[in-house]
UniProtKB/TrEMBL annotation:
Enzyme class: transferase
Originating organism: Blautia intestinihominis
Catalytic activity of the protein: a 2'-deoxyadenosine in DNA + S-adenosyl-L-methionine = an N(6)-methyl-2'-deoxyadenosine in DNA + S-adenosyl-L-homocysteine + H(+)
Keywords tagged on the record: Methyltransferase, Transferase
Pfam family, any one: MmeI_C
Domain MmeI-like DNA-methyltransferase: 365-620
Lineage of producing organism: Bacteria, Bacillati, Bacillota, Clostridia, Lachnospirales
Gene3D superfamilies: Vaccinia Virus protein VP39
InterPro entries tied to this protein: DNA_methylase_N6_adenine_CS, MmeI_C, MmeI_hel, MmeI_Mtase, MmeI_N, MmeI_TRD, N4_N6_ade-DNA_methylase, SAM-dependent_MTases_sf
Stated name of the protein: site-specific DNA-methyltransferase (adenine-specific)
Keyword Methyltransferase included in the entry's annotation: yes
Ranges where the MmeI-like C-terminal domain occurs: 838-919
Enzyme nomenclature, EC number: 2.1.1.72
Length: 920
């Protein structure tokens, strides 16, 4: 398939070389690309051309693909896509900025996920979830090799769930009803043994329901028909007897069972340990539970087509949400699982199989296929935080699908006869190991693997034309219940036998950890603020020493941002010789479970560095990737640099300081509506600005009594009353340091009031290209929700408002969810400033003033409005562009240098500058 697509891309590029003018050929160009290169049937039904948008006069969007949410701005082949051109309204915009202006007039439901600008020679692909990032550039001449970067054209953002997904989610709903109904019947539902028994009971029921629908039991509806013979009162005893029989080999059963209970005797021996524990507590059944089992779960539902990968996660959603939060569990979609397993091992295996299948000699092909099948059966996997087993289950299914391809090629049209003790299947669930702390999840994971084995065996039967007996279970699912951070992984699987480590360890920040989790972190790190997931990285790095094991873990994005980069990756790279093989930058992690986890994640693939092998690394941004020489701990294409906390700037610039900490219990703060009460003492009232006030223009005030005498304070009763309240508030606080401040109740804890300063919020939305900051004077008091730079000049304001500083900030700052968290000790103090000439410095001062002037023309708009990327005024955008160019030139980045137009290249240059500065 890849070879066919590559050939089609080459033919497309050859045909369109030296062709293309905007209006006459753009539709033909895009229809051909979608149809001939990406195999889209009837592309004219999927792409819209010339949609009207109303600006000052009617304009037209060149093309829009609704399913993929892609807006296309097409230009003629002589148009430079980087260059801004004058528009009909007088504004100067690049094609990308022109496209963004159209977006404002579209309904929110049609706002694009991607914008593509094209001039028939190049495609510039912009990810609209990451404003300010570099576009992916694909040249027509390179399309044969880089066509995959445009696969978003055929990607459906809102994919219709497959039938098996629908079934799996519906199955989870049924399990939830059954779980809740059974839980009510336990005498002591809070008892640990009762809850563990309930979990096991639900998993056993699911297995029986699946087995009767999928042909694992001897006949369809066997479990249903058995239970039909009993009333609700009798069902408990019937279930206990059934579980006992399912765990008994035929030779161990009562020889008279067929005579006494022929229906029960029909059930096969299962093996595998699923039914071996007879000590579980089974409560009395009600008519409601009996009906749920017989009607909802059996008669009205077919379990044979559920996806074990999805169902494992959905099944786990029967756990209490509080338990999930404390454990840091996040349910996983199949799409996201493949973001881990495809680059870790599956892409390489598929490519190897494609290469074998392309061989012309049948004898050599057969030999290679047999060798490849043995290779598949030799691969061993470990998920050290297995959860419901969905990573292991999906990996097993993918390996078995490859094996079935092999068997199909080897089988041809032959019909196998006999071989009753022979199985052509070599890949086994015994190759998959897991460690999981939650007993319910362990049981679910085993059941999911067995269901996957049954489904794949059925697929194999259709290929080799043989009846393969699934029961009794001949393989074991090696999922161990344990705290993964406190056991030796070698006791689960010797590392000399292991091939891959993969999974989704729990994400738990410091504030949400249990005492036990805090102890776990202390075993691995002295830095207390590191996320819990980092422990798995450290343990894996130690475990894989002197091996070729490759790892890939899903993590909260915090471990690749701010202080955590140095705490984790400096340790791994310098002390354990770890290198990052591939990585997915920050994306939102969703799942198939009804209670989805919306967290911002990264995926990091890593191994012990092999100094003899020089491989390029894959750095994913969305569904596309770049080949790079090195991926550092910030998931950037650049050298391995680790920013340490610095209390002062590494360059000769004014210090950044935190705003004033109030600790007044709001006694000294004045809301806008209360301001008239202080009209006779306004000399003591100043504007107060925190993050929200700075961004949204909200008015708040403060009694600023620094230097006021006791007589002056007592002169105004309304002031005296507030001071008295502040003293009382501080005395009532638990912290002893705050209680001492009751001796100075007329002021905030801090009393900084600079004459002029730059103020910027500590947290800002990732959707903004620029962090909004302002130039303020001594009449405005900053709180600790903003950072300040006292005595900063226009030059400093210009550099900080430039794209250069913003791309540095985006690369190294911490995050609050996905929002930027600006740190003075990491972001500001480590920022490498330029060394401009006097003329370059004067130019930056002029462009900085130009930004302030452009803002001043919109007195009714707050900073949040002005820097909303969808509605940012054109003149403000132009002022920033002039400022960006002035700052780039001060760094010596010419228009021909990659750093001038590429964010990643710019950050790489800044990191080199940082290295030089700190080395001195």
């Amino acid at each position: 398939m890849k070879n066919i697509q590559r050939k089609a891309a080459k033919e497309f590029a050859v045909y369109w070389k030296d062709k293309g003018y905007e209006k006459g050929e753009s539709q033909k160009f895009w229809l051909s690309l979608l149809r001939d290169v990406f195999g889209m049937e009837k592309p004219e039904q999927h792409i819209e051309f010339e949609e009207k948008v109303k600006l000052e006069h009617t304009n037209f969007i060149d093309a829009y693909i609704p399913e993929a949410k892609i807006l296309i701005e097409q230009k003629g082949r002589d148009v430079n896509l980087w260059k801004a051109n004058k528009q009909s309204d007088g504004s100067v915009l690049t094609p990308y900025q022109q496209a963004k202006r159209y977006i404002i007039e579209l309904p929110v439901s049609k706002h694009p996920r991607w914008v593509i600008t094209c001039n028939f020679k190049e495609f510039h692909i912009y990810n609209m979830e990451k404003p300010g990032g570099d576009p992916i550039v694909v040249k027509l001449e390179n399309l044969e090799k880089e066509y995959y970067l445009l696969q978003i054209l055929a990607y459906k953002e809102n994919i219709v769930l497959k039938k098996e997904m629908d079934l799996s989610i519906a199955a989870g709903d049924i399990v939830g009803l059954l779980y809740n109904a059974l839980a009510k019947q336990y005498k002591n539902p809070e008892n640990a043994h009762s809850m563990k028994s309930l979990n096991v009971l639900c998993v056993r029921f699911v297995f029986c329901l699946y087995a009767e629908d999928a042909g694992v039991f001897k006949r369809h509806g066997q479990f249903h028909d058995y239970l039909m013979n009993f009333s609700a009162r009798e069902t408990r005893k019937a279930v206990i007897e059934l579980f006992k029989i399912l765990d008994q080999k035929p030779e161990d059963r009562d020889p008279y069972l067929k005579d006494d209970n022929p229906i029960l005797a029909e059930f096969p021996y299962v093996n595998g340990g699923l039914f071996e524990n007879e000590d579980i507590e089974i409560p009395p059944f009600t008519d409601e539970i009996r009906n749920l089992l017989l009607i909802n779960a059996s008669e009205n539902f077919d379990w044979s087509k559920i996806s074990p990968t999805i169902f494992g996660a959905v099944f786990e959603s029967t756990l209490n949400p509080d338990t999930r939060r404390k454990g840091g569990m996040h349910y996983t979609s199949i799409e996201n699982i493949h973001k881990v397993i495809d680059p870790l091992f599956l892409d390489e295996l598929k490519a190897e199989l494609d290469s074998i299948l392309s061989l012309a000699t049948d004898r050599l092909k057969k030999q290679k296929l047999q060798t490849f099948q043995k290779k598949l059966s030799s691969l061993v996997f470990l998920d050290p935080a297995a959860g419901s087993g969905n990573f292991l289950t999906e990996s097993y299914i993918c390996l078995r699908k490859l094996e079935n391809q092999i068997l199909k090629e080897l089988q041809g049209n032959q019909v196998s006869l006999g071989f009753s003790n022979y199985s052509p299947i070599q890949v086994s669930i015994s190759q998959f190991y897991g460690i999981e702390i939650n007993d319910f999840a362990v049981t679910v994971a085993k059941a999911a693997l067995w269901i996957a084995e049954s489904q794949m065996m059925e697929e194999t039967e259709g290929i080799v034309h043989m009846n393969l007996n699934f029961l009794p279970l001949k393989t074991n699912a090696y999922i161990v219940e344990a705290n993964s951070l406190r056991i030796d992984w070698n006791n689960i699987i010797d590392k000399t036998r292991l091939s891959y480590i993969l999974g989704n360890p729990p994400f738990v920040g410091r504030r949400y950890r249990s005492p036990e989790q805090t102890k776990d972190v202390a075993k691995f790190f002295t830095y207390k603020d590191i996320d819990y997931v980092a422990c798995w990285y450290k343990k894996a790095a130690d475990y894989i020493q002197n091996t070729h094991i490759k790892c890939a873990l899903v993590s909260t994005n915090s471990i690749t941002q701010g202080e955590q980069v140095t705490a984790l990756w400096k340790e791994l790279m310098q002390n354990y010789n770890i290198c990052i093989d591939f990585a997915h930058k920050t994306f939102r992690w969703d799942s198939e479970a009804s209670l989805k986890a919306h967290v911002h994640c990264v995926i990091v693939g890593f191994s012990v560095k092999d100094s003899l092998v020089k491989e390029q690394k894959k750095l994913y941004d969305g569904i596309n990737y770049f080949l790079v020489d090195n991926i550092n701990g910030y998931l950037m294409d650049g050298p391995n640099i680790f920013l340490e906390n610095h209390s002062s700037p590494i360059c000769d610039v004014p210090k950044m300081k935190n705003g004033n900490v109030p600790l007044d219990g709001d006694a000294l703060k004045i809301e806008k509506e209360d301001l008239p009460k202080f009209k006779n003492c306004m000399q003591y009232v100043k504007r107060l600005i925190g993050g929200r006030e700075l961004l949204h223009g909200e008015e708040r005030y403060v009694l600023w009594l620094v230097g006021a005498s006791p007589a002056e304070i007592k002169k105004y009763p309304q002031i005296y009353k507030r001071v008295e309240q502040c003293r009382q508030n501080r005395l009532n606080m638990k912290d002893k340091g705050t209680q001492k401040l009751a001796d100075t109740p007329a002021t905030f804890r801090d009393t900084n009031n600079p004459d002029k300063y730059i103020a910027l919020p500590m947290v800002s939305s990732e959707r903004r290209r620029y962090i909004p900051m302002d130039y303020l004077d001594g009449n405005v008091i900053p709180t600790n929700q903003v950072q300040t730079i006292p005595e900063a000049s226009l030059y400093h304001f210009g550099v900080l408002n430039s794209n250069v500083h913003m791309c540095w900030m985006r690369a190294v700052c911490g995050r609050l969810k996905s929002d930027f968290r600006y740190s003075k000790d990491i972001v500001y103090n480590n920022f490498p400033w330029p060394t401009p000439t006097p003329e370059q410095k004067r130019k930056i001062e002029e462009t900085a003033q130009g930004i302030l002037n452009a803002r001043a023309t919109y007195p009714d708009s707050c900073l949040s409005d002005l820097y909303d990327d969808n509605i940012m005024p054109a003149d403000l955008r132009i002022a920033h562009n002039y400022n960006n160019i002035a700052v780039l030139e001060a760094y010596g980045f010419t228009k021909s240098s990659p750093a001038f137009r590429s964010e990643s290249a710019c950050v790489a240059e800044l990191m080199k500058m940082y290295q030089k500065i700190v080395s001195k």
